[in-house]
């Protein structure tokens, strides 16, 4: 049961990355197709997060969810939008990943 909650949380984080990227294309929710896709991703992400919270502690789950979304969004920005890949920025991403892993391994769930 615990492993499935972590897997669910991982996919919730991936969907968070998707909706964060989708926001770039909604132009303030004035474009219909990107707006609908972004809202669907938001709903899915929140739903999966809520499912994982039936097993995982809220503080840990929320921090991991936002961490996955943050790392995924930064990586997507680098890959798709040519954002900076400076050593300092990549080290900061690694620190977030280390924090996510630490929270997972230190969790009681």
Report what the structure shows.
This protein is an all-alpha fold and 109 residues long. Helix content is 83%, strand content 0%. The chain has four helices and no strands. Helix 1 runs antiparallel to helix 2, helix 1 crosses helix 3 and helix 3 packs antiparallel against helix 4. The longest helix has 25 residues. It is flat and about 40 Å long. The model has no long low-confidence stretch (mean pLDDT 95).
SSE ordering: HHHH
Total helical elements: 4
- What is the straight-line distance between the termini? 9 Å
Beta strands, count:
0
Secondary-structure class: mainly alpha
* C-alpha-based Rg, rounded: 15 Å
Topology, pairings included?
Blueprint: H1 2-26, H2 32-52, H3 58-81, H4 87-106
Helix pairs in contact: 1-2, 1-3, 3-4
Question: Which terms would index this structure?
Answer:
109 residues; mainly alpha; 83% helix; 0% strand; flat
How would you concisely characterize the structure shown here?
The mean pLDDT is 95. Helix content is 83%, strand content 0%. By secondary structure, the protein is mainly alpha-helical.
């Amino acid at each position: 049961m615990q492993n499935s909650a972590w897997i669910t949380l991982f996919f919730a984080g991936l969907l968070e990355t998707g909706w964060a990227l989708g926001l770039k294309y909604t132009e303030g929710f004035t474009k219909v197709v990107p707006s609908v896709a972004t809202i669907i991703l938001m709903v899915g992400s929140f739903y999966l997060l809520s499912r994982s919270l039936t097993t995982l502690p809220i503080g840990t789950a929320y921090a991991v969810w936002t961490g996955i979304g943050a790392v995924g969004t930064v990586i997507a920005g680098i890959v798709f939008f040519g954002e900076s890949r400076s050593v300092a920025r990549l080290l900061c991403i690694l620190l977030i990943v280390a924090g996510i892993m630490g929270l997972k391994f230190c969790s009681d769930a």
